[in-house]
Design goal:
four-stranded antiparallel β-sheet; alpha+beta; about 500 residues; seven-stranded mixed β-sheet
């Protein structure tokens, strides 16, 4: 059978199951030997069975970096299911896929065009490759404090100024489910005969229902990276990299992945990719229909709660479509921040959001959610509004002003790689203004940098980060977690 006609198969999962159930004396890593050496607290939490499947690269299980049997077959099935020509399994998350995509297309000094709201993993790719970023500002919606996508017009302008760029990268969808006009951007990019790389970490489900946004590969992407653990049924850290067309050298991808993937990948994670692919390939339309139905129920009911509003498709630049399984609820009209709302929901009402931000909360509704989950979410939001009534007059709406970005395209004064390796020094935060950042600092989630190596530190950026901390948000990448000091490039 061809891969397209055999999606019911799970070659890697089957191989792992067979080897797990094969009695033998293990004289190889890992040291716990099929769970015999695992501590009792871990067994109490996870059960004993999972550790029997924690196996290394045994002959029957294939090799991730030179697949010839079970992994090769599983990747072929995945390529067929997701509309790719070639697929690679990722055990180090989408982060390693994004880094590999940059390493495979850009060398030291090569230019790559990418949005300023790119995930921090792309900045890691720039540091490792030595590529020069040409940042394009995404369209910004101040009413919602949400960055949309970059536009075709902005992409075309960047390419006109930098026709020697080696690749374009875009985020599709954003953390909030916003999709830009990828098809138009792909056409513009291909006029320069360079590849379009897509961070599709949050869009692995798009290929399986017509009411979801168009998948990146179908719209013209040359390479896309998807986190199957985010929206489908794989385990955390399990992702895929897909390639389509002839603009990507698959051998360079293979070499790059050897640099950023573990030489001892977890076969439990890899097998979860095989199983998740089978599940969505066979039952995707039904599962996504159920997911969309749940999302619409939540969207409809929450939008009727006074003081709350729900993000809907907007007729604004950079907003071509919305993933309706992604629910963003504005809470700032209640006089509280998303961070405060998140703490109340999580600690007191047993409902946990994916992403709190100053004005809103974002919830991922996926094939794993139930009617009961939606009921609990709606009930919690109703109680949140009720609490606001009790405290009316005691809270004032906080105004968060996102740091202004310079006109794009933006070329940093130092490349991220130069700034990363350049000698640095630690100074007080107020003394760091107008200096070059030596740190990659971002609120997390969503992991979008506010300060990055090689860029000038502005007063607005420092103020914004301090507002995030004061409101209860979390900041990553800074050596001083209280943000009293910053690391800068030594003058």
């Amino acid at each position: 059978m061809s891969p397209a006609n055999s999606q019911q198969q799970t070659p890697l999962l089957d191989a792992l199951r067979d080897r797990t159930n094969h009695p033998h004396a293990p004289f190889y890593a890992p040291g716990h030997k099929g769970g015999q050496g695992i501590s009792q607290p871990l067994i109490d939490l996870f059960g004993a069975a999972v550790f029997r499947s924690d196996l290394p690269e045994l002959p029957e299980l294939d090799n991730l970096f030179n697949p010839e049997s079970a992994i090769a077959q599983a990747q072929e099935l995945a390529a067929a299911a997701f509309g790719a020509q070639s697929t690679r399994f990722l055990a180090n998350g989408s982060t390693c896929g994004i880094i590999a995509a940059i390493l495979a297309t850009c060398g030291p000094g090569d230019k790559i065009i990418l949005p300023r709201n790119i995930h921090s993993s792309a900045i890691s790719g720039l540091i490792l490759s030595g590529a020069i970023p040409i940042f394009v500002n995404p369209e910004y919606n101040p009413d919602w404090d949400i960055a949309n996508s970059i536009t075709p017009e902005a992409t075309a302008a960047a390419l006109e100024q930098h026709p020697d760029a080696k690749a374009v990268m875009m985020v599709y969808p954003t953390y909030h489910g916003v999709c830009g006009d990828l098809r138009a951007i792909a056409q513009i990019t291909h006029q320069y005969n360079i590849p379009l790389l897509v961070d599709e970490a949050h869009g692995a489900h798009f290929n399986f229902h017509p009411n979801l946004p168009e998948p990146a590969l179908s719209a013209g992407a040359d390479l896309t990276v998807q986190s199957l653990h985010k929206t489908l049924g794989a385990m955390t850290q399990a992702s895929m990299l897909h390639v389509k067309g002839d603009r990507i050298d698959i051998q360079k991808i293979n070499k790059a992945l050897q640099l950023v993937q573990s030489t001892s990948p977890s076969y439990i994670l890899l097998a979860s990719l095989d199983a998740a692919r089978q599940q969505i390939a066979l039952h995707g339309k039904e599962l996504m229909a159920q997911t969309l139905q749940l999302a619409e129920k939540a969207r409809s009911r929450i939008s009727q709660i006074p003081g709350l509003s729900v993000l809907e498709p907007l007729n604004t630049p950079g907003f071509a479509a919305l993933d309706r399984t992604r629910l963003t609820v504005k809470v700032s009209d209640l006089g509280i921040t998303g961070f405060v709302a998140d703490e109340i929901l999580h600690s007191e009402l047993a409902v946990t959001a994916e992403l709190p931000m100053p004005q809103h909360l974002t919830f991922i509704i996926s094939l794993g959610n139930t009617e009961s989950d939606i009921d609990n979410l709606v009930k919690a939001c109703t109680l949140l509004e009720g609490r606001r009534k009790k405290e009316e007059g005691r809270r004032k709406k906080e105004d968060f002003s996102h740091p202004p970005l310079p006109p794009s395209p933006i070329l940093p004064l130092l490349s991220p790689r130069e700034a990363f390796f350049f000698p640095g020094e630690t100074v007080a935060a107020d003394k760091a203004v107008d200096r070059l950042s030596a740190e990659l600092i971002c609120p997390y989630p969503p992991g979008i940098p506010v300060l990055m190596p090689g860029e000038i530190i502005t007063p607005a950026a420092v103020d914004y980060l301090q507002q995030i901390l004061a409101a209860g948000g979390k900041i990553t990448g800074c050596s001083d977690r209280n943000l009293q000091t910053l690391k800068v490039v030594r003058q």
